[in-house]
Amino acid sequence: SDIYRAGISGARPVVPADPGRLEAAARKALSAEAFAYVAGGAGAERTVAANRAAFDRWQVWPRPLRDVSARDLSTSFLGVHRPHPLLLAPLGVMELVHRDADLAIARAAASLGLPHVLSNQASFPMEEIRDAAPGAARMFQLYWSSSDDLNASLLRRAEASGCEAIVVTVDTHLLGWRTRDLDLAYLPFTRGLGIAQYTSDPVFQQLVRERASAAGPAESVRITPKAIAAGVSIARKGAALTGAGLRDSLRSPLPRAAVETFLDVFSTPALTWDDLARAREWTTLPIIVKGIVHPDDAVRAVDAGADGVWISNHGGRQIDASVPTLAVLPDIADRIAGRVPIVFDSGVRGGADAFIALALGATMVALGRPYAFGLAVAGEAGVAAVVRNVLAELDITLGLAGITAVADVGRGGLRAV
Ligand code: FNR
A GO molecular-function term, please (predicted)? Predict the structure, then answer.
């Protein structure tokens, strides 16, 4: 009702409430390359469309005449009581969208009490993100590196930065076939974007030094931890400005060594279920496995000791014509039968979508692109406004469905089409 009151009093909304208009506003605010990176999906983008279409198979029953004047959106997740069943999915390379990137996102999340999952490809080191919003709920998302030492180091830092869980993303052992990025010849990572988590890491710095000294003793002299971070940031300014300036900006051997080291360690297609078990040796934090779509994999993750399962097809960015996530949510929820919490994402655009996901068994619902669009339009305030809109619509939908608490949302609230 605050949002409606603000509208009546003539205050201009910070971001459009309609998801389509929000995306259009972000497109206007961003360079063609940045918008393509955020909005794009794999191949012909059939998964992006299927993620949305899967929501059309469910309808919410209106249930009037049940006192819903007091409504409770709170929920419990990983043993902690949370004000809302939403969280912010990890998004890499947000420096393409806004200069404050993850710092702005962390502050917005903190202001609303939502957990923010810091991306392995964030634009700021996790320690700086923590300092931007100390005390906020946060988790760290790991892309499993080919270097175990680097994995262990990143998880150590995550623990020290106050992260309450580790999210291991397992659907990106190969980068998807990103047609929009390919056609613009713009792959952010190869320009040294989104690698701040690495350049700030002592194990990574050592790997860069080794590579640079193999290239010749003259280069290795200049390679200090500070120089690695500074060199990459100079290189990426060039790349960001020109779009096509990759070769020029990476001519310096210093960022070249850093970017090439990144490309080597980023992830490994050899990763298996057996490897995953090793994460336990590196951290005592709860481990959530993100990127699960097949129900057998969901059960296997739980059997392997995962503390949570995150159903996601990466917002349709990995496989074209993938199975949409909402289609498998009921089956996975049945198979897991409450043993661990379920996080759900891919295609959620509004509060009614969140309601449907909760009704079909999600414990927490994650947002991806919508809050990146909010960041593009209005920075920190834009992220907060997008989340507030989703929460407001969820709250209204709950009440109109005759339900007073998120905990009571169930399949009886829906009709299958
Ligand atoms: C992502 N996603 C992602 N996932 C992850 O585990 N680590 C990452 O660094 C990123 N980076 C990233 C960047 C951008 C621009 C997008 C759009 C997505 C996937 C993300 O966490 C989430 O699974 C999807 O965004 C959810 O789908 P929707 O809400 O975007 O449809």
Answer: FMN binding
Interval between CA 308 and ligand 1 midpoint (Å): 18
Out of 86, 105, 118, 119, mutate this one to test ligand 1's pocket (max ligand atoms within 8 Å of CB): namely 119
DSSP 8-state symbol, 178: B
How many residues comprise the chain? 417
The rounded distance, in Å, linking the Cα atoms of 230 and 212 is 16
Strands 75-77 and 58-60: unpaired
Dump pLDDT digits (tens) for 339-397: 999 999 999 999 999 999 999 999 999 999 999 999 999 999 999 999 999 999 999 99
ipTM of the complex: 1.00
Cβ of residue 267 lying under 6 Å from some atom of ligand 1: no
314 is catalytic: yes
Residue type, 81: H
Q: Is 315 in the pocket of ligand 1 (CB under 6 A)?
A: yes
Residues 83, 271: Cα–Cα separation, whole Å: 36
Q: Which ligand 1 atom sits nearest the alpha carbon of residue 315?
A: 27
Q: Is the dihedral of CA 124, 126, 128, 129 positive or negative?
A: positive
pLDDT digits (tens, 9 = 90+) for 290-321: 999 999 999 999 999 999 999 999 999 999 99
Q: Take residue 273 and report the two structure tokens written for it.
A: 């279920």
Task: Set out the domains of the chain in order of their start, with CATH numbers.
Answer: 2-174+268-416 (3.20.20.70), 182-265 (no CATH)
